[in-house]
Amino acid sequence: MLQLDGFPTGDGVKADRSAGRLTGSMMELQTLQEALKVEIQIHQKLVAQMKQDPQNADLKKQLHELQAKITALSEKQTLREEKMNRINVMLWINTIRKTQLSAVPVDVTVLTL
What one GO molecular function would you report for this record (predicted)? Predict the structure, then answer.
């Protein structure tokens, strides 16, 4: 399991819906984005090294492994974003339903009987 700065990624992080925020999922998404940023920066350095020594087999291997890692992180980020979008839609629908229920006119005469 990937872990950066003490924040594990994966299914171990749960969404906290208190105050309408999905802090767990948002933290995980941020962690994934930070990990991608770091891996891309390393990739850029490796590409620069490859320009100096294009026949270096070790650099080629590192670059290939890093590309696979970046692809995996990117796919994980996409899945997390899709999940957050689905949760946000469900929360939005529930909010609309609550609003519609509270907007139902109440006949006061029925209440006084």
Answer: chromatin binding
Give the C-alpha separation, 98 to 96, whole Å. Answer: 5
Contacts of 93 (CB under 8 A, 6+ apart): none
Tens digit of pLDDT per residue, the chain (113 long)? 333 333 344 434 444 444 345 577 788 889 999 999 999 999 999 999 999 999 999 999 999 999 999 999 999 999 999 988 888 888 888 888 888 776 656 555 554 44
The residue type of 6 is G
Beta-carbon contacts of residue 46 (< 8 Å; ≥ 6 apart): 59, 62, 63, 66
- Give which of 23, 27, 17, 91 is closest to 9, Cα–Cα: 27
pTM value is 0.63
